[in-house]
Write a structure and sequence with these properties.
The structure is a single chain. This protein is mainly beta. The protein contains 2 helices and 13 strands; from the N terminus they run H-E-E-E-E-E-E-E-E-E-E-H-E-E-E. The protein has helices spanning about 5-15, 145-150, and strands spanning about 35-50, 50-60, 65, 70-75, 80-85, 90-100, 100-110, 115-125, 130-135, 135-145, 160-165, 170-180, 180-190. The protein has an 8-stranded antiparallel barrel.
């Protein structure tokens, strides 16, 4: 995974409560357009944590299935996520992450056309893996469910997000900030 130090700082920011307020229980409101099957068309992330500036994009084709109580990711056929970063002091780097297989979370949401979505990280199950590549060569592979159950935050998995949807499109925004910096991940989907 990219920049372990940035992720650890981000996880600390999240743990400290520096995130968007997200309700922990599902709403009994009318059926939300969030429920259904989606395909990722665009993803971008910007982060500045501890002076390390990171951007990422890609992952197109990732499939998402949202029910009233769960969210399932299917990475079969999804594009790589390309990450560019610059460490404090000016050293730049570039890498990619390749996601495979599937991942499921128990979840809750509130709202019909706009609202909040919460994935319960400790409930993560599935055989999904992510391989980090530098220069096209794999340097590490981890199990994504284990990563989330350990309390880490992955900017490509929107575990807490604000959503907006219609019958054909959906967007998610995941933001976190804290004393060491901030990050924002944006996701755009079409109905499948």
């Amino acid at each position: 995974m990219f920049s372990l130090s940035a992720r650890l700082m981000l996880a600390a920011a999240v743990a400290a409560g520096g995130v968007l307020a997200v309700p922990a229980s599902a709403s009994a409101a009318p059926k939300s357009c969030l429920v259904g099957k989606w395909k990722l068309t665009k993803y971008k992330m910007n982060s500045n944590v501890g002076g390390e500036v990171i951007t990422s994009q890609g992952g197109g084709g990732t499939k998402l299935t949202v029910t009233k109580k769960s969210v399932k990711f299917d990475f079969a056929g999804s594009e790589k996520v390309v990450i560019k970063g610059k460490k404090p002091g000016g050293k730049a780097y570039r890498m990619a992450e390749s996601y495979k297989k599937g991942l499921t979370f128990k979840s809750s949401f509130k709202g019909a056309k706009k609202g909040s979505l919460l994935l319960k990280a400790k409930s993560a199950t599935g055989k999904a893996t992510v391989t980090t590549l530098i220069g096209g060569k794999p340097i590490s592979t981890i199990k994504v469910a284990n990563y989330h159950r350990s309390g880490e935050v992955n900017p490509f998995i929107p575990v807490f997000a604000q959503f907006s949807c219609t019958s054909k499109m959906m967007s998610l925004l995941m933001e976190a900030d804290g004393p060491d910096g901030a990050m924002a991940s944006e996701f755009y989907y079409t109905r499948r």
